[in-house]
């Protein structure tokens, strides 16, 4: 079961995805590959934006 911190992080990620904000695989890999090195990178930022028009459904 997720703790409060995990639930908050999941909620934040879902909101970002709903807005069309993503971090590329390449950026994640570069960040992870830098761990433990003398030149560790900061966490990557959003580098993919997908905007899509949403149609509202009438009930």
Describe this structure in words.
It is flat and about 35 Å long. It has a two-stranded antiparallel sheet. The protein has 59 residues and is mostly helical. It has helices spanning 4-19, 25-34; strands at residues 21-22, 48-49. The chain is 44% helix and 7% strand. It has one domain (4-49).
Our estimate of the beta-strand percent is: 5-15%
Tell how many strands the DSSP assignment holds. 2
Radius of gyration (CA) equals: 16 Å
Provide the domain count: 1
Strand order of the largest sheet: 1-2
The helix/strand order is HEHE
Low-pLDDT segments: none
How many helices in DSSP terms? Answer: 2
Terminus-to-terminus distance: 35 Å
Main β-sheet, in a few words?
2 strands, antiparallel
Q: What's the multimeric state?
A: single chain
Mean pLDDT: 87
Shape, principal axes of CA atoms: flat
Summing up helix and strand content along with how strands pair, one would put the structural category as: mainly alpha
Which tags fit this structure?
two-stranded antiparallel sheet; flat; single chain; mainly alpha; 59 residues; 7% strand
């Amino acid at each position: 079961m997720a703790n409060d911190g995990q639930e908050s992080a999941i909620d934040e990620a879902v909101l970002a995805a709903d807005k069309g904000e993503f971090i590329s695989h390449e950026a994640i890999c570069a960040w992870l590959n830098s761990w433990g090195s003398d030149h560790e990178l900061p966490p990557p930022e959003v580098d993919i934006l997908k905007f899509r028009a949403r149609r509202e459904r009438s009930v």
